[in-house]
Design goal:
With 420 residues, the chain is an alpha/beta fold. It has a single domain (1-70, 90-420), classed as 3-Layer(aba) Sandwich (Rossmann fold). It is built from 13 helices and 16 strands. The strands form three sheets. It has a twelve-stranded mixed beta sheet. A two-stranded antiparallel sheet has the order 3-16. A hairpin with a 2-residue loop joins strand 6 (196-200) and strand 7.
Length: 420
């Protein structure tokens, strides 16, 4: 169970314990004939003892001085000589700060009780008890990992199987997985209770039990459309922004391209749709005002993932001008107009709260999001089908899709453990 504590404000999660539980299921550990190795996700990726930055400069104070500076400029004659602007905020940043003011009390007050309970239960520890851990070294990353996105580009040269020809490739101990490009653009499923290891162009990736995935880009989603429909769909789009373009860390999609995702073909009636949104207000407005209406999804609420250290501090100051210690999730339900009246009379689901907090120690890996299954299960029927789009890791009981869907499944992120 990943939920350490739950109250009216939200949930305090222990992501590391949940991930580790995925890779040594009791059924696998006790099965004598099972020869598969068990694994632990490396603890170092969740050892965050101090905030990333310490900043006591108030964003609100800076905003006030900026506005005063703008007003004084309007009352004076502008000089011909070009001068450096005293205010660096553009309209998008001003909108973000206005939004931040609206949610600050919600996040501050909601997180306080959850963090305090985490301290009471020993899940979090006061800073004085862990300060000696500052010498901990950063965990080694999978620097030699296979370039999954490039592999998907290579696979575009292969003729695609269409229609009923799509098949699911099951992982079995006796049958090795096809190597290289041949595993791209087809559903791979591990039906067993044990993790499995696959070799992809000389790199090893760990597949959790009861999971399936499609390694492809947005141009080859057809196998996914032929596979299942889903009751929960989590989306983490590669949003366009300047830092991504500069770093070339991954390819981004424009809003127009994101709207082309065939979500209505993947979603069952009353499917719960959750979209991760950056702190850019134009992305939040796009999801609520354009994307969800385009997909026939009704917006239900905005939740916030709040990131803390092991001592319960925000990883960034709440009033930081740039980095925020939270990210936004927009929740909605898919409603197919043709079936909405018929199905609504049969299904009685708990209403999704407009605001909730998910508080956890974040993983150090870039763009690694906490699993949401534990906090969403009370808003869907039991035994539902779950899908994550633009995933970079796998989860038991879920189907995952993306052009880097195995990224955080690389062997370098795990350590092997001995079976008893």
């Amino acid at each position: 169970m990943s939920v350490v504590y739950k109250n009216a404000a939200g949930w305090l999660l222990d992501e590391l314990s949940l991930i580790r539980k995925w890779y040594h299921h009791p059924a696998c550990c006790q099965h004598d004939v099972c020869t598969r190795q068990l694994y632990n996700f490396k603890e170092d990726f969740f050892l965050i003892f101090r905030p990333h930055i310490t900043n006591h400069f108030s964003a609100a104070t800076h905003l006030e001085s900026c506005l005063e500076s703008n007003q004084s400029k309007q009352t004076t004659t502008p000089e011909r000589k070009k001068r450096k602007r005293s205010c660096a905020f553009n309209q998008g940043e001003l909108d973000a700060m206005e939004y931040h003011k609206k949610v600050t009390d919600l996040i501050l007050n909601g997180a306080e009780a959850l963090v305090q309970e985490g301290l009471n239960r020993g899940f979090l520890q006061p800073f004085i008890e862990i300060k000696d851990n500052k010498s901990k070294t950063e965990p080694g990353l999978a620097t030699s990992a296979c370039q999954l996105a490039e592999l998907c580009n290579m696979a575009k040269c292969i003729p695609l199987i269409t229609g009923a020809g799509h098949k699911v490739q099951f992982l079995e101990t006796e049958i090795p997985l096809p190597q290289g490009i041949s595993i791209v653009s087809q559903i791979i499923e591990n039906k067993s209770e044990c993790p499995s290891v696959v070799d992809l162009l000389g790199e090893k990736y760990i597949i959790p039990p009861k999971s399936s995935f499609l390694l492809s880009d947005i141009s080859c989603m057809e196998p996914l459309l032929q596979y299942k429909t889903y009751n929960i769909i989590v989306i983490d789009p590669p949003w366009e922004n300047k830092s991504v373009k500069r770093s070339k860390r991954y390819s981004s999609l424009s809003p127009k391209e994101i709207k082309q995702i065939p979500l209505p073909s993947l979603a069952a009636q009353n499917c719960l749709v959750i979209t991760w949104v950056t702190n850019k207000q134009k992305h939040l407005r796009f999801v609520k005002e354009e994307l969800y209406p385009h997909w026939s999804v009704r917006t239900l609420g905005e939740w916030h993932w709040t990131k803390i250290t092991k001592s319960g501090e925000f990883v960034f100051p709440l009033d930081s001008l740039h980095k925020k210690p939270y990210e936004v999730l927009v929740l909605g339900r898919f409603q197919n107009a043709e079936n909405s009246t018929k199905s609504s009379a049969k299904i009685h689901l708990n209403p999704v709260p407009e605001h909730r907090l998910i508080v956890s120690i974040p993983c150090k890996l870039h763009s690694h999001k906490p699993p949401l299954g534990e906090v969403l299960k009370e808003y869907v029927e039991p035994g539902v089908e779950c899908l994550e789009l633009f995933a970079r890791n796998l989860q038991p009981g879920w189907t995952s899709w993306g052009n880097e869907v195995l990224k955080f499944q690389h062997m370098d992120y795990f350590t092997s453990i001995e079976k008893d």
